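Exercise (ungraded).
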Amino acid sequence: MSLPRIQADGGVYLDHAATTPLCVEARGALEHGFAIWANPSSPHRAGRGARAALEDARARIAEALGWQGEVILTSGASEAIALAMARAHLPVVAVSSVEHEAVLRHAGGAVQLGTDGAGAVTLGDAALGGLVAIQHVNNETGVVQAFDGVMERVRAAGGVVLADCAQSAGKLALPDADLIAISAHKFGGPIGIGALLVRDWALLRPTGGQERGYRGGTENMPGALAMAAALEVGSEWMARAAVLRARLEAGIVAAGGEVIAGDAPRIATIGACRMPGLSANALLIRLDAMGIAVSAGSACSSGSLRTSHVLTAMGVAGANEVIRVSIGRETDEAAIDRFVAAYQGIVAR
Amino acid sequence: MIYLDYQATTPLAPEALDAMLPWLGGPGSDGFANPHSPNRAGRAAAAAIEVARDAVAALLPPGGRVIFTSGATEALNMALRGSGTRRLAVSAIEHAAVLDTARAIDPGLSLLAVDSDGLVDSAVPIPEGTGLVAVMQVNNEIGTVQPVDAIARRAWAMGALFLCDAVQGVGKLGAPVEADLIAVSAHKLYGPKGIGALWVRDGVAIDPLITGGGQEHGKRSGTLSPALAAGFGAAARLCATMRESDAAHVDALWARARAGFAGWALNGSATERWRGNLNVRIDGLDVARVLSECRSVAISAGSACASGSGRPSHVLRALGLSDRVARTALRIGFGRYTTEEELDEAVAAILAAASAQGVTPQSA
């Protein structure tokens, strides 16, 4: 099959936390999926072929993630989170205050767990005997939550942990959690497929339909194949990302910028930085005009001009002066250097 | 393999695949952006989604908004759960996505009966106090076309909303113009799996099922796939331009298939139907054996979702067929890419398999 490609505009893309390019392996898997397009629930040979491919992909997804439990394929992390929060037997009792909106909007009257200045969630004396949502890696700052103490306390209280791993899956080892939401397009798979990982079916109430009765709708089999292929590419490149981010942040600091939560454990792909006196929106517009794509906070909330709830929860001053630069598998030194040069040029004016 | 299961899923149109490929770009391309990012690539992706939205909207009535979802099941769940109504009336032959969801919301829901032709009477009694009425446009198992506009007007007159599952009809027939809510799925109209839409009439309030980033005007959170949307849009455009030729092709195939199965009983009305669905039965047929002997032909005994469950079809039951008779039915679905030669070969194979069981129209 011939592959028409959009011409690259020579720009620099440093917004991989919003979405990252489809990797070649995932693209190939997707095209294979399109070629065997039957409905996986059909009992005829074509359908059974699609089913076999789907189940093979499901097993490979679990294996690549090192996950021992069940895998419910969804349209993405937002749906996985909605499914977990609406269908868990236990009520939602606590969510961290730095969760993605996908969690916060389903939280109802649950207790919001605060963070320290470095973005680490503090459990305090909250009652934890229900569903507790704590994300693995924050999408705006890259801060990694330590799950060690969390799981013991929640389990001791009779609760379960939902971990939003949209930013970490495929990059870091998954945390010890009962329910985990992932999204393929954050790790080189296509947009439109994700999964809810479930330690035990007994945690959820079924709704009927496909996915063993836990998620109705014809399965996106090509998407599942591509998600498996993207995960199997692995995360060796993360070591290179760490070097690139150090280079990036050295350039930012040299220009007078501040790195957010610089001393906290952070994923190597995300760097948030603040330039006092320069609004994030002004900076974004100038960078965009120079062909450099970064963002202010999450893609979903960008353009809304709302102050980031994540930075507010962390007590970061000047939250509207913070931009997010995020690195992907193919990011190279030249891209970082072009960003740093542009950044320093804008700041110097 | 001869694929005759177009109600389960349709082949991806080459044009739809071509529309998707540029949005499945790798590193160094502009074809992978998050359409909700305000950067240049993101804006281009967002624009592509809006072009696709217009193409899908062109298959649906004016005066409403297309909300993209992961498919029709999600769209139907969103309509039923998001409408806020608790008293429901749905036809007895709805897809499980409507029936199961409606039962979960209203355990006392009213089932609107169908006649032996598989049609809901437009004057069917609807209980007072019903908040939402759902009747599908084209039944997925037997292909009957329901009088949805007439029933929608009755729902309106009693102050109820009308939801139409148009999965099997949209792009093939005119849209159900009087509905308040319409669910559609791309992979039933030659588009990709993983995307569908809920059409919502202006002024009808629906709460979201998936909250979060607030995409789709806050009605459906989650990053939208530009590739899936572009594929859906291209498939929708193709359905619009090819509607007459698609229908003529299906009519010709229908006449051929009907002649081939002369002497078999047709399930569902012969006239009020989408002719790309031929559901037939013959006394004494062991359908499972036919399916296993015709390995090179992909057909089914009912909906893909329910197949393998061994449950008798609720649709055929609603027609008044006994479970024993319902188990002798075959669904043969064809469409744009089916050739006459394929159809003839498949019909011959099915007839030979039936005859090997000693089942022929003469003996029946």
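Further reading is listed at the end of the chapter. For now, observe: The mean pLDDT of chain B is 94. DSSP finds ten helices and twelve strands in chain B.
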